[in-house]
Amino acid sequence: MTINIALLGYGTVGKGVYRTIQQHQGRLQKLLSEEVKVVAILVRDIKKHTAPDQSVMLTNQYEKIQQLENIDVVIDAIVGIEPAATYLQSAIEKGRHVITANKEMFAEKSNILRELAKKYHVSVGYEATVAGGIPIIQTLKKLLNANKVTKVEGILNGTSNFILTKMREEQLSFDNALALAQKLGYAEADPTNDVEGFDAYYKAAILSELIYGEKPKSEQIERNGIASIAKSDITFFNELGLRYKHVATIEYAHSQVKCAVRPVLVESNHPLYQVEGVQNAIHIEADIVGSISLQGPGAGMYPTASAIIEDLIHLSEKDQEYTFNEESTLDQQRSAKTSWIAYGRSALQQLPEGAEIMKMIANDTWVVEIEGDLRIEDASLIQILGDATRLKEMKKIH
Ligand SMILES: NC(=O)c1ccc[n+]([C@@H]2O[C@H](COP(=O)([O-])OP(=O)(O)OC[C@H]3O[C@@H](n4cnc5c(N)ncnc54)[C@H](OP(=O)(O)O)[C@@H]3O)[C@@H](O)[C@H]2O)c1
């Protein structure tokens, strides 16, 4: 028997999937007890491509793939919400399993696709949509049976992490670090999705739905980019032992899912501190297990293909039903103290009731603590991740 696959998209990810299937056929056959074969590939501009094998149908018309009777799995490695969502819906309605790497589409359409998949008794794999090769979706699925996840913090975009790393290591301006990322192929010509936090937000929304059964409502989403961070700010906080990171945080408080994608300052005692360059990492806090951190390649041809192939192996597993948002455990999170740098006198004047000024650590720079979250009205309040005791005990500099 053969598992026949239609591959939508033959760019970085599509080619990675094709090559991985070819190169690891023996291993896949052993695991699945069936041969795995790509029988059709969809592209946009057919003139740019040649079929990798005579037996593979290369087309720019999805209808031709839809009409094939022997397809078992459709793998989506194209870009954007449409037509990908429509293609996957029609594939599911024909009884085909689907696997996607398309985070923008899945962040928007996951509900519809999963409901439809339930109705047609097929699976939706989406490991590749979040943090490339890091098996975060499988890890959370294993964890969510007994644990309640109280918080997730992640570096989910390799491009913005690369830029912040280079700004610190080589004292580059944002523009020069971005130009370097573009030269090395880590950033696109239009870097908005990465540096403004849209890409990280899509991934956070997908995690939120898996962990809490819902996406954050628009008023519970905060998204700030890294383009306005000055080289001098990076150097200044580096001297204080803090590293800027662009972090997505997802948590449940006051019966609502909250999601923030923003630049934060990370203490050396936090697992995200040593995550450098294009690496991604995710730090999970759960009520029984405690803390777990995963780190690895967040993008690229083979890391992403690895996530898709893992989905292929797990296709037969049923989508589990989890119990979400049990107040008693999630409530504990609300009372946790958070630490912040208040930078400039105007920041001090904005502090809400309950915020405690702990220490002046440099001229016009204070460590502040508060229970729960402190909404950032402007860039003069920056959250510190990790235990800030060291800062509260250090001597004032400058
Ligand atoms: N690259 C990564 O490391 C990575 C990691 C995780 C997830 N992803 C996600 O995976 C997907 C693919 O990324 P990629 O880097 O492989 O992109 P890519 O290199 O630009 O390749 C995209 C492929 O999709 C085809 N395509 C795009 N729109 C299409 C349409 N409307 N109809 C038919 N074919 C279409 C393109 O065809 P033509 O070649 O003819 O233009 C191309 O072959 C994206 O959703 C991305 O967000 C990528």
UniProtKB/TrEMBL annotation:
L-homoserine binds at residue 188. It catalyses: L-homoserine + NADP(+) = L-aspartate 4-semialdehyde + NADPH + H(+). The keyword NADP applies. The lineage of its organism: Bacteria, Bacillati, Bacillota, Bacilli, Bacillales. PROSITE patterns: HOMOSER_DHGENASE (PS01042). Pathway: Amino-acid biosynthesis; L-methionine biosynthesis via de novo pathway; L-homoserine from L-aspartate: step 3/3; Amino-acid biosynthesis; L-threonine biosynthesis; L-threonine from L-aspartate: step 3/5. Residues 135-313 form the Homoserine dehydrogenase catalytic domain. This is Homoserine dehydrogenase. It comes from Cytobacillus kochii. NADP(+) binds at residues 8-15. It is an enzyme of class 1 (oxidoreductase). The active site is at 203 (proton donor). Residues 9-126 form the Aspartate/homoserine dehydrogenase NAD-binding domain. Keywords: Amino-acid biosynthesis, Methionine biosynthesis, NADP, Oxidoreductase, Sodium, Threonine biosynthesis. Belongs to the homoserine dehydrogenase family. Its EC number is 1.1.1.3. NADPH binds at residue 103. One of its GO terms (molecular function) is homoserine dehydrogenase activity. InterPro entries: Asp/hSer_DH_NAD-bd, HDH, HDH_cat, HDH_CS, NAD(P)-bd_dom_sf. GO terms for biological process: methionine biosynthetic process; threonine biosynthetic process.
